[in-house]
Design a protein that fits this description.
By secondary structure, this protein is α+β, with helices and mostly antiparallel strands. Helices cover 27% and strands 26% of the residues. The chain is built from 11 helices and 21 strands. The chain has a 6-stranded mixed beta sheet with strand order 6-7-18-10-21-8. A hairpin with a 5-residue loop joins strand 4 and strand 5. Helix 8 packs across helix 10.
Length: 359
């Protein structure tokens, strides 16, 4: 056991030898582990241990010497991560909090030319769950350019990009003039796209107002007020599907998905009334608890005090953290409301954020 900055680090010698960062234990170019973990003696004991100037130094029986920065251990061990918060805590919002502290936006020309402004957008996405890029050319090419500043786009059965208008081209309520309750996109994939990048190309004559709701905020309210309901929604896998004559995709996961580990951090809100398939993943004697939990969660999601309404205008590109922030729209009339955009994958989004030191 090593105590550092008030945290008791319970260090296992096998773990320490396996995670050595010095000498030939690691490829210093690729960052890949060079130690064959299974060959380490499970009863290995060091020959010598010392701590000097923030460095844990260990000499092993074969003469190999390891050095571990104490700050590195604090950031990378189980006990350390439980006590050390990340550098970016999400701002959980309702309409009032968002009004008092609105997310900043950036101009398209600055975003495209300067990594500092790109980092600002990524920070805003992680902090608030959505961001705006203003004064963009009203073209699909400009929307693609905003997307590819972050990562390659994710092609789906909608194509490389998606384009929504009221022509019912796809078997999806989004391709009508009807109102859309808030939902997550891609619930019918086992790994939904994490980012949605969209632009309004043409507004309808009346209506079609955009709506966002912070799903993480709603989930935390559920956890606080109805912990049993939260446990149900975070443990029961639920199927979702997309059906067309020659297409049937399915995605299964809990409505409230948590990050792995004991910290119980929120990872994803898989919420879509339209796309949920037959609930065949829970015994009939338990479905009552699941529906009760869903009603409680939906009460927070549909609470008007949690709704952020705005009119998305041509030239304004909206980026939404799809795993967190739910989106919808009001019904509209007249004209041809045209909205188009791209999906982006999670891993590449996080990679870009790490490279730019956002996280």
């Amino acid at each position: 056991m090593l105590k550092y900055k008030g945290v008791k680090l319970m260090l296992n010698y096998v773990w320490l030898r396996d995670h050595c960062r010095t000498g030939d234990s690691i490829n210093h170019v690729t960052g890949e582990r060079m130690v064959d973990s299974v060959t380490i003696d499970p009863n290995i004991q060091p020959v010598n241990v010392s701590v000097e100037e923030g460095i844990l130094e260990i000499t092993w029986p074969d003469g190999h010497q390891s050095e571990y920065g104490l700050d590195w251990l604090l950031s990378n061990t189980y006990e350390g991560k439980k006590h050390v918060r990340g550098t970016l805590e999400p701002f959980l919002w309702d309409a009032s909090a968002l009004s008092a502290s609105p997310p900043p936006s950036v101009l398209y020309r600055d975003y495209m030319a300067d990594d500092g402004h790109l980092a600002k957008v990524l920070y805003t996405l992680m902090k608030y769950g959505f961001a705006f890029v203003d004064e963009a050319p009203v073209t699909m090419e400009a929307t693609l350019a905003v997307s590819e500043r972050i990562s390659h786009v994710r092609e789906t059965f909608f194509g490389k990009h998606w384009f929504v208008t009221s022509d019912f081209e796809r078997h999806d309520t989004g391709y009508t003039t009807a109102a859309l309750p808030v939902h997550m996109d891609n619930t019918h994939f086992n790994e939904p796209s994490e980012l949605i990048v969209s632009q309004m190309f043409e507004e309808g004559d009346c209506g079609g107002t955009s709506l966002l709701v912070d799903g993480f905020h709603a989930a935390e309210r559920l956890r606080q007020d109805h912990p049993e309901g939260f446990d149900v929604l975070s443990s029961v896998p639920v199927p979702h599907q997309f059906l067309e004559p020659f297409l049937h995709t399915t995605g299964v996961g809990p409505v409230v998905e948590l990050e792995p580990g004991s910290r119980r951090e929120l990872k994803m809100i898989r919420y879509s009334m339209y796309d949920r398939a037959v609930l065949d993943t829970i015994p009939m004697e338990e479905v009552g608890r699941w529906y009760a939990a869903l009603r409680s969660f939906t009460k927070y999601i549909r609470d008007p005090s949690n709704e952020y309404w705005f009119q998305l205008k041509p030239g304004q590109i909206l980026l939404v953290y799809n795993w967190r922030v739910l989106h919808g729209r009001s019904a509209y009339e007249g004209g041809q409301r045209k909205l188009g955009g791209y999906f982006l994958p999670r891993d590449d989004f996080f990679s870009r954020a790490r490279i730019l030191k956002v996280i």
